[in-house]
Amino acid sequence: MLLKIDFRSGDAFRGPGSSLLGAHPFAPAGSRDTGCSRRSRPVTPINFKSYHFFIKTLSTAPLIFCLCPSLFYVIILNKIHLSATNANGAKNMIQYKNGQITVFESQLYKTTSTVIQTEDCIIVVDPCILPFEVDEIREYVMRIRGSRQIYLILTHSDWDHIVGAGAFPEATVIASANFQKKNPEEMIEQVKAFDDEYYIDRKTPLIYPNVDMIVEKDGQPLKIGNTVLTFYEAKGHTDDGIFAIVEPLGIWIAGDYLSDIEFPFIYSGSKDYVETLEKTETILANHQINILIPGHGHAAFSKEEILKRKNESLLYIISLKKAIRSKKEHAHLIAQYPYQRSLIKCHEENVQFLMKEMEGES
Ligand SMILES: [Zn+2]
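That is the input. Now the predicted structure with zinc ion docked in place:
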């Protein structure tokens, strides 16, 4: 029997028991094993022993024109293989990468995990979701770490964002005060239910981490050498969300807000959600933002794109409340978003939530 989750908290809706089974990412074309083929493999170095033997053998051939095409073939093959794997050996998951930032993207819900390296520290955000994906992120972090301290930022407590926290036991954990107040067993139960539904085994322990550095107020700073982190409360999706700004790199970690593929999922309050969106201009005015990374979807690289996402989210909330109040049709409000078969359910959840909220207001 499927364990139904109805915690009404964030992405739990999209977890076990939801109708996402039809879009099961592990089993395209009737195969259960395709997930393994996506596993990261380290760069395979050229096998110099056999390479040397190959050259030696060919060099004894009487015709030199036999040698040239064969060598050319071997070199090209190796070049193709190396170019399929980036300089750090990580592949498959990377949505965006520059010298300091690597944005990993899960196969599920386009959930992002970000790794930032500065001269002072390594910052890991929401490592997720599938075991081999968490492994890949962990391996990558360990490869680049050196002697730097790891800081693990958890943007909020939804299962898809905390699932990989156990892979970084050495990290200093940063999250909000409300994150700290959650019932750990209840939060971990969401992950376990998801894993049971898809028969997922994990090597890394499932933990609801203890928060080492609690974000308690808007604009709270944290200085690590020359790296400056500024945190903002981000409520509305859940009541324990945070934004993190990383300077001087100009990175805005947005959690489950300002996505290009999801409209607002309102699980803690529409007023809070609007207040969170209204922080956009202040953040853009106070910080030089070069990249915004949402919890799901694609990074944004311009002020215009960030403001566009903010306005679309705001318009969705205002229009939906208006439509509910006047009992008008509202399905068209999500017409521009992909994955409609799943997202329509999130939209319907929003409608139910807002109706209750509006009843309470009147
Ligand atoms: Zn999420």
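Residues 48-83 form one domain.
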